[in-house]
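A further point concerns the way the authors explain their paired sequence and structure data. Each protein is reduced to its one-letter sequence and a matching series of backbone shape codes. An entry of this sort, consisting of the sequence and the corresponding backbone structure tokens, reads as follows:
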Amino acid sequence: MMPGQLSVNDRVLLHLSRFATDTPPEEYPAESTQVGIADGVGISRTHVPRAVKTLMREGMVEEFRGRVAGRDRRMSVYAVTSEGFRKAETIWEEARKSTIVVMQNGKLTEMKGVALEDAVGKRGAFGLLSQMRDGVVELSDRKRARIRDIDGAPPRGEFFGRAEEMSLLDSFLGSNARVMVVLSGQGFGATSLVREFVEAHDALDVLWRNVSGRTDTDDLESAIISFANETGHGVTDLESALSLPDMLLVFDDYHSVGEEVVEFFSEMVASLGETKIIVTAREDTPAYNWFYQKKHVESGIVWELRMRGIDEASAKKLLRNSNIEPEAFRRIYLMSRGQPRLLRLLRDGDIDGLKRTSVFTSEEIMYLMFLKDKTV
């Protein structure tokens, strides 16, 4: 089906697909309510019940009673099913190959769907298609292509669970906090979490930099200022670069760094402005390398997110053995503490990898290998 022929139901499905998660979140976004759907799709609220009921009959959407961000009471919310998400992906794949009529700067033009994705990201494209009017997508100046310098980030891989963590990161973006520090032991997926979060927020300009003992602060400062200028803002100093809205700086694997780097990050914490900063840091970072203090956490300038293992349901999905014997799974989960990397190595039968990255003895590794293949 061509984009200009999208039905209201298709547009509602695309809208809800923007907020799909593997597991139910603690709080649903306001966009998943009937009012949020009406606003997001641009239809009368009286038309929403008919659309969602049809999608529910087709197995594309489910209705829940849940907590909604910014609301005190539970409300009816709607979420796409796996079947609904597949349908939305099918709609989008057709749109990517099609020519779409676009209104930009007051003029009608045409572009391929894939070009629209390049301009605003996949989630952004879903949103634009869901708001389509008479076969025309409005691409305003504020929806310019976002700048994303994330070459240093790892490629996206398997990602399970982490609904609470993703929700907290979402809340961070809407808060007055300056810095989010994601604390983790190795193998618990802090980098993967932030990588997935970045992918889900394509309305932000994102600069990703890895941190190590060789990190040079002059290079960091130059990269931030240069990136700020790429986004269309003329800045000449770090303070101005850090004042920009809709910009996210990610610094990955903060651990053992030099004194100049500690001071540089401390200055960023103290700076004013709207630029958000996420730092993934190891929990065993030496005390003299921490760039913020307890007072920053207590005042809300810095938020901390402490990574633990994934939940049991997600761990079972990662192992890809839905028929695993319950007691065997319980022991695996306790021994691995739900650490995604260990579970992945175990699933793949990577004995050498387990020896290199875990503290398990050879006997314990063989025992885990035995357990993961037990079925009911």
Remarks:
- The chain is about 45% helix and 15% strand.
